[in-house]
């Protein structure tokens, strides 16, 4: 542990963690269960193309998410691309800038203009009034994000989309296992998409899904993920290869079997941070409102430079030097990322821009040892106590 600010790795001291500590480490269930599934696939010599493990995982997810149809895909981005194309979206689609860049790319790559709306300063969900102001005759949908284990302003967005007669979709990559007024995320809007990337709280190594209660949409998505084939000789529609393999589904079945434990472990990590951050001022942990049961997978805090004493970016620099690879998700906001910056040079998204400058994500989730959180907490308290001296020394180094 550090006795003096000279012991900080940034100033030449030893690193607090010998190996990089990422914001999430994959959660894993039982290796034996995983290998049993893999052995069964091996014996069947059936590795992909809508195999029994994929079908089993789809059924289990439909039950878990209380939704009629779950269509597994190779990743979350392909699920979003398929839904966008299956619904025949065109023209313009409204989405938050404060989200992962994949949705904007999925739209832009097929010539649909992503129109970036701001988020609400309290909920961090798409600002419904701003969405309303951005609607034009070209608007074909709104795609909201359930962010950081919280849910979007679902009812207000539904009302807006109903009155405009446009579909509402959700990027639910951060919200697997969350509920909104007791109903699981997965059955809202016309469709929701999930990412099952290894960094997510439920994962299939790589993978994703679209969930919907619309039978026709689900049938179209199933064909589109397999080149448009409806049977051996019939190709009814344009499609691509967005299938999930049996090995990926095996990982999903393994992780789903322990998902209740994962949620408990996520909550323990989150609570541990909450207790630590309450011992000093300046880092406010994001906690969802009461109507949301969070998956607690994301440990996100707002840095108040004035009360914490260090800027968000100085804090990040210090943590990275200690091998704590905290992130400033989502920075700088999609509308400021290179492919979108020029066409959005006049965009005014004050809440997004302000939040992108203040937010930090700490290592969390089910797989981080509690002792590591204790060490991070100790370091954060040390930084808070010595912030002025540290800032002065960083300024001299700059
Ligand atoms: C909010 C959000 N949406 C979409 C995606 C894309 O998912 P995938 O990486 O599975 O394509 C991610 C992935 O990190 C994400 O965080």
List keywords for this structure.
14% strand, binds pyridoxal-5'-phosphate, Aspartate Aminotransferase, domain 2, 15 helices, seven-stranded mixed sheet, 398 residues
Could you walk me through the main structural features you see in this protein, from its secondary elements to its overall organization?
With 398 residues, the protein is an alpha/beta fold. The protein folds into 2 domains: 5-21 and 259-397, Aspartate Aminotransferase, domain 1; 31-257, 3-Layer(aba) Sandwich (Aspartate Aminotransferase, domain 2). Helices cover 39% and strands 14% of the residues. It has 15 helices and 13 strands. Helix 6 (154-164) links the parallel strand 4 and strand 5 (168-171). Helix 9 (259-277) runs parallel beside helix 14. The two termini are 25 Å apart. The mean pLDDT is 97. Bound molecules: pyridoxal-5'-phosphate. The site of pyridoxal-5'-phosphate has 13 residues, from helix 3.
Bound molecules: pyridoxal-5'-phosphate
Strand content: 5-15%
Q: Strands of the biggest beta sheet: in what spatial order?
A: 1-9-8-5-4-2-3
CATH architecture name of the largest domain: 3-Layer(aba) Sandwich
Q: N-to-C SSE series?
A: HHEHEHEHEHEEEEEHHHEEEHHHHEHH
Major sheet: 7 strands, mixed
Tally of separate helices: 15
Ends distance: 25 Å
Shape: globular
* Total count of strands: 13
Fraction of residues in helices?
A: 25-40%
Task: Give the integer mean of the pLDDT values.
Answer: 97
CATH superfamily of the largest domain: Type I PLP-dependent aspartate aminotransferase-like (Major domain)
Instruction: Using the coordinates above, name the CATH class of the largest domain.
Output: Alpha Beta
CATH topology of the largest domain: Aspartate Aminotransferase, domain 2
Low-confidence stretches: none
Number of domains: 2
